[in-house]
């Protein structure tokens, strides 16, 4: 059964029968296995019951990144907005020999009255996930179906499962100006991003659409290709922040890195009747084995 759903859980299984599958709770992807190997981090302490944002997977950030600031209309919304803490509907699914697809919908009639009061705009989101034998595409379309313009942030808050945070790199951001939220300063990225402590950096207008995340010590890695998304966020909470999160194991920071594609440095303005879309494709790469002469 390529697409199965039980209550809020949806499972997409690739027809190659090679234990390549994705799991979603609502519209939050919580697992991506390729030939049985998990590539997405989900905290062992994650609360996956809809009562709070899931610590791991690919939570969807909309309509604000972080905490909105007054007088912006998003100022009273919860951190990262309401999309990741609201129940979406599975609206469509399809499959062929190559790709299994599922679509989830969320519109203004489905959010809480409280959130509607905070952000009174008529919108419709369609989130499409596509699983192939060795890639995962996640695509978001935002439509303004009302008569008032609104502006929004959005981000695919992807948590990657990695062998060792001290060995991982993020390649493709060299020379890009970023805001370092830990040191509260901005700078130009010199070379590859590495994790040697807490990292919380927002890279704006990243020209390269291909970001590589090698695991280190010849273990291959993940390639993130972004479409219509200009910014990249890199986050690892490290020891102190990890200890401060009840839904995150104290030592789990060693085996995760968030590399997040989105539109967060600036708000996107959407006129009445307008629409916007953006997506990312995750794929695997193997470090070529050294040829033995
Ligand atoms: O994407 C990085 C970030 O904005 C960090 O600042 C940190 O707050 C992280 O998101 C997790 O946010 P959450 O609301 O899920 O605890």
TrEMBL record:
The lineage's top-level taxon is: Eukaryota
Tell me the protein family, please.
Belongs to the eukaryotic-type primase small subunit family.
Q: What is the name listed in the Swiss-Prot or TrEMBL entry for this protein?
A: DNA primase
